[in-house]
Amino acid sequence: MTDHGTRPLRAPRAAAVGGPGFFVTFEGGDGAGKTTQATLLEQWIGESGGSVVRTREPGGTDVGLRIRDIVLHHRGHIDPRAEALLYAADRAHHIDTVVRPAIARGDVVIQDRYLDSSVAYQGAGRVLDANDIRALSLWATDGLLPDLTVLLDLDPAAARRRLDADDKPFDRLEAERGEFHARVRAGFLDLAAAEPERFLVLDATQPPELLARRVRDAVAERRG
Ligand code: TYD
Q1: How many CB atoms lie within 10 A of CB 92?
Q2: Measured in angstroms, how far is the CA atom of residue 58 from the centroid of ligand 1?
Q3: How far is the CA of 3 from the centre of ligand 1 (A)?
Q4: Could you list the pLDDT tens digit for every one of the 224 residues in the chain?
Q5: CATH code for the part of the protein at 22-223
Q6: CB of 25 shorter than 6 A to ligand 1
């Protein structure tokens, strides 16, 4: 028999950064243009004299690169809960050793993917409980939330055409079927609707320069 204990469950703490730095994450399906937008923002902050740390999940550390290799390239099945734990392990180490120190120094951290990817891919995509997945990531990171999350929203069929044009082999997640990516997209949009003050949702079919301007405005507004 499973003992769930008698104490009521407590939701993990969640807090925006609050330190001298600024933490911005880019989210969205594969092929939505996150990397392009992260690069344009990095250039803009650099030109205005800010110190930037550009990073990503999975694989923002040496330990994370090994985890990335498993989650993206392992041949064969990985149990969905194991997959969720692998992403959370990558995240715990990355936030503790790279992101929190950068924020404490006053840097701007620009990150491709964070906990919202876990809720969308492992929660909505793999059909695990979204609250469990979020709680796992918040435990892993001691409750760190970004100051701003940019969601690049794109229809999965359009995203697939972009990936096909790239001509790179698909990783484990990219190779999932269309319904999986439709659930992931809906999962991201639900997250954005639940936290409208943290999210900036952009239509990823718009020209990159226009998207970049919207991102810059949102960063400038929040950094003050
Ligand atoms: P990404 O680095 O964006 O892929 P690429 O280098 O091909 O642009 O992300 C790798 C994959 O991992 C992507 O398909 C989304 C998935 N992912 C999750 O499923 N859960 C997570 O928590 C994260 C961070 C990524």
Answers
A1: 18
A2: 6
A3: 34
A4: 444 444 555 555 566 655 699 999 999 999 999 999 999 999 999 999 999 999 999 999 999 999 999 999 999 999 999 999 999 999 999 999 999 999 999 999 999 999 999 999 999 999 999 999 999 999 999 999 999 999 999 999 999 999 999 889 999 989 898 999 999 999 999 999 999 999 999 999 999 999 999 999 999 999 87
A5: 3.40.50.300
A6: no
Q: How far apart, in whole angstroms, are the C-alpha atoms of residue 122 and residue 126?
A: 5
Closest CA to 121 of 110, 133, 137: 133
Residue nearest to atom 14 of ligand 1 (CA): 173
Exposed/middle/buried for residue 22 (C-beta within 10 Å: 0-12, 13-18, 19+): buried
Whether 113 is in the pocket of ligand 1, judged by its Cβ within 6 Å, is yes
Q: How many whole angstroms from 172 Cα to the centroid of ligand 1?
A: 9
Is the Cβ atom of 118 under 6 angstroms away from ligand 1? yes
